[in-house]
Structures are given as structure tokens and as C-alpha cells.
Design goal:
alpha/beta
Length: 342
């Protein structure tokens, strides 16, 4: 469900759920007690007595692959999507190791086992070039190749592999253990971070150019019906090709939306002054982006089906005999219950 409110807790307990998963946290701010005399505390007590756990996935679900942002973009039919505000990829190191040629394969396998050389669906990815290593063992050395005091030349491979920075210590340990030299030569280079495929919001294209009014109707038909409905700011006859979306409150990302070049921005909880200033600035410059404001609950609801699908797939993959039933709540937990037009 989207919200851990009383109605949803009732539904979970009546159904006999062992686990309730919601997007919004029950506690957004720290608390010192969960007394049953408070409404949030009472929900905790009811869940405990009903043997039902509560798990919330908030900002992590917003940014994840097939998370809240992807679900909203998919529901509205957007294609060629990318993050509106991309999260940086996990930091990477590049290991450059010089290995005597008979031992290259063994060192490669050892580094890969420690976490190096993974790229998407590929493992043991590496780059090799050949050259000559030169060194002179000094007194006290126990060289694997050559003799103390004598200059030595060895045919070596330059082995390069990329690895997550968090695995650096393990990879260095594996390198030293697998390398035949007592003093292996290697470099660890920190690679520049690059934008990843996850992050807040999404920007994509509609399959065919449409108008703001027609696209707003798609939004209204696709998302759950709420008392607020769908509000639009802009020329309803204007053509639309590029769309930015963000489930939940989105007026803090207006600068990112403008930078994305989106024709229209679909989000929730738009406040008067930020929305007014964005539209005035847009009219002064080029007229875009237009705005489509939906109910907060409605913009995040499409994620539930994807979350249920992925959870079911993961549980089935972990244990083919697992019999877990997953239900998506159909309760509308938008707080507004009516609207009156003047």
C-alpha cells in the first residue's frame, strides 16, 4: 500500500497478512515512545498483536529501477526514459597489476573472485598488454625470479581490471596472495564517477506528439481517481513531446526540470508561489515547462504493482517451494474526500 494508515492496517489484519509493505513511513520524524494512546502508537500495537510486520520503502523506492518514478513513467506510456536527477554510479577503482606471464591467469581469477572485473552480465573483464619488467633484488630479498644483486628482466603482462571501491581492501589482499612476487607492482586508480541509471524522477518521450490537454486526459484516466483530480497549468493546445515525472512532492526540482528540456512536468503537491514563478518565468522565456499536478497518493500508487511483481519473483527464485501470496491494496488513502467547485 502507499500509506500505513488505519484503514490499510485493518485490511492487512483482516486478510491475515504477515507483512505490510508501504511506500510512506509511519514515522517521518523521530519519536521517544509508541504509546497505544497515540494514533500512530496504536497502529504499532495493533500490528504487533496481529503478528504483522511493517516495512517501508520511501526514498530508496523513489529512485530505484522499476521504483516509483519508473512506474509512473511506464503508466503514462513514456519511452526512452532517463533519470531526472541521476544518482552517481557506485565509485570504482581501476587496478593495474604487472604480472610475470605464466601467472597472469591465476592472478586474474583471484582478482575476479575478490570482486574485480564485473561489467553488467560479464565477469573477469580485463585488459592485457605485454612488456618487460626490470628490477634488482637487494640483500634480504627472496626473489621468485632472478638472484640477489643481479639486474633481472622478466616478460610481464600489464593486467587492468575495474572494481567497486568498497572492495579495495579485499582485492589488494587477493592480489598479494596470488601474485608470485613478494613485492608485486600495482597501481590503484580512482575513476571519476558518472551518472547512473537510477535517481529521482524520470524524463522520457511520448510515443507520438500530443497536446497538453490530451496528455492531461491520459494522466487523469491512468491514475486513481481522487477528489483533487488533475490540475493543469499551460496552453491546452500546445504540443507535447518530452515529459518529466516525479511521484510525490516535486516543486523542489523545478530547476532540474527546466534543465531537462521537458515540455511538461507531472508531479504532486505543487504550491502556489513556486508554481506561479515557474510559469511566469517559462512564459517570459519560451512557455515551457507546463505543469500537471496530481494527488500525491495517485502519483505513487502505480509502483505497488511493480513492487508486488518483483517481490514475488525474488521470493520464487529464492525458494521454488515458497507459497507467498501478495495483495496490492485498492484502498484510496488520499486524505482529501471531496471537492466543491464554485
Amino acid at each position: 500500500a502507499v500509506d500505513p494508515v488505519g484503514e490499510v492496517v485493518d485490511e492487512a489484519l483482516e486478510w491475515g497478512a504477515d507483512l505490510l509493505i508501504t511506500h510512506h513511513p509511519l514515522f517521518l520524524k523521530p519519536v521517544h515512545a509508541v504509546a497505544a494512546t497515540t494514533y500512530k502508537g496504536s497502529l504499532v500495537h495493533r500490528l504487533v498483536r496481529g503478528d504483522c510486520a511493517l516495512y517501508t520503502a520511501h526514498t530508496n523506492a523513489d529512485a530505484a529501477r522499476d521504483g516509483v518514478a519508473d512506474a509512473l513513467a511506464q503508466a503514462l506510456g513514456l519511452i526512452d526514459t532517463r533519470p531526472l536527477v541521476a544518482a552517481a554510479e557506485s565509485p570504482l577503482d581501476k587496478f593495474v597489476v604487472f604480472v610475470p606471464q605464466p601467472h597472469t591467469d591465476a592472478v586474474t581469477v583471484a582478482l575476479a573472485a575478490a570482486g574485480a572485473g564485473e561489467a553488467g552480465d560479464y565477469a573477469q573483464c580485463s585488459w592485457l598488454s605485454s612488456g618487460t619488467g626490470r628490477f634488482t633484488p637487494q640483500a634480504g630479498a627472496r626473489p621468485a625470479v632472478g638472484r640477489v644483486g643481479e639486474p633481472t628482466s622478466v616478460a610481464e603482462d600489464r593486467l587492468e581490471m575495474v572494481a567497486p571501491r568498497r572492495r579495495r581492501a579485499q582485492i589488494v589482499a587477493a592480489l598479494r596472495a596470488a601474485h608470485p612476487y613478494e613485492e608485486p607492482a600495482f597501481d590503484v586508480l580512482e575513476l571519476a564517477s558518472s551518472p547512473g541509471s537510477t535517481g529521482l524522477g524520470r524524463v522520457g518521450r511520448v510515443p507520438e506528439t500530443t497536446t497538453l490537454g490530451e496528455f492531461a486526459q491520459v494522466v487523469a484516466r491512468t491514475l486513481p481517481r481522487t477528489a483533487q483530480g488533475v490540475r493543469v497549468a499551460g496552453d491546452l493546445t500546445a504540443s507535447i513531446e518530452t515529459v518529466a515525472v516525479l511521484g510525490g512532492s516535486g516543486d523542489s526540482l523545478f530547476d532540474d526540470v527546466r534543465a531537462s528540456g521537458a515540455d511538461v512536468y507531472v508531479t504532486s503537491d505543487l504550491r502556489h508561489h513556486p508554481a506561479s514563478e515557474l510559469r511566469e518565468r517559462a512564459v517570459f522565456e519560451q512557455g515551457r515547462p507546463y505543469l500537471i499536478d496530481t494527488a500525491h497518493f495517485a502519483s505513487e500508487w502505480p509502483w505497488l504493482a511493480l513492487a508486488a511483481r518483483d517481490l514475488d519473483a525474488d521470493l520464487s527464485a529464492g525458494d521454488s517451494s515458497a507459497a507467498v501470496e501478495i495483495r496490492v491494496s485498492d484502498r484510496c488513502t488520499d486524505p482529501w474526500t471531496a471537492r466543491f467547485d464554485s
